[in-house]
Amino acid sequence: MTPSVHVGQWAFCFVGGISLTARHNGTAFVLLAAVLYSTAGLGMKLIPWSGMALNGGRSIIALIVYAVFLFATHHKLRINKWVILGAIAVCGTNTLFAIANKMTTAANSIVLQYTAPIFIIILSMIFLHRRANRLDLTTCAFVFLGVVCFFIDSLSGGNLFGDFIALISGVMYAIVFMLEDMPDGDALSSLFWGTALSSAIGIPFMFGQAPLNQTAIISMLFLGAFQMGLAYICLVIGLKTTAPVTASLVTGIEPVLNPVLVRVFYGEEMEMLSIIGTAIVIVSVIGYNIILSKEKSSITKENAVYKTN
Fold this sequence. Notes:
This protein is an all-alpha fold. 79% of the residues lie in helices and 0% in strands. It has 14 helices and no strands. The protein has helices spanning 5-15, 22-37, 40-45, 51-73, 81-103, 106-113, 116-127, 134-157, 160-178, 187-206, 214-238, 244-251, 254-266, 272-308. α4 packs across α11 (214-238) and α6 runs parallel beside α14. The longest helix is centred in the last third of the chain and has 37 residues, at 272-308.
């Protein structure tokens, strides 16, 4: 169960103090979530800890944010097999992404995680026996081509294993999205328990790490409170009143802005082949959502005409 629209309006007033229509309200939340998510690469690069320790630190902070939000919205925590499965997926997504960010470039880690919609198609074919159409297969082929560009580029850069971890993070992220349609699931409960699991797993790795300077401490606080905590809350609220195609286009800013921030403030560069791979993956995923949305809209209109006649 996701927060209702009135919760979204309350939260937006809390964040920005602006009154908007429900549609614009939702789009603003999705945009804010995407911008906050895009700061992950830079924030992690500024913290001299391992991926496991870093993820444990930001998860502890994010867990406090989620607890406050659940209390403020009177959302009761649930636990069942679907919630647990979702929690494992949330934990896997966050942990693997943090590890990958330390082993490969920020651009590779975020764009390879952005392949999640393609894994939704593949996993649906395998476990839900959903038949893939021409659009599904064509999109998978193009995204696969983009992924190949990353791995070829990483062969010479020594980032191959980091790219593989990032790709597995994309698989886990796909499972998170699939759980929304599973019976008796609860996204916020899965998020809370998954973040709690991330905290528990990461705490042992935090011992013995290098002391954090002021920049690293600020980065850790920002990652936990805003990049993880506030970002996911904004996304859950925004998707309540935002059309899928709009959300897809708006969140497409994340894999673009993420490496740009790292390049400007950290100096990490991208090779040409990775840039080509980034363009292929982003255009393929966004294009897929646009075409799919138009097809669904056309079918809805045809059914409406048929019922009228």
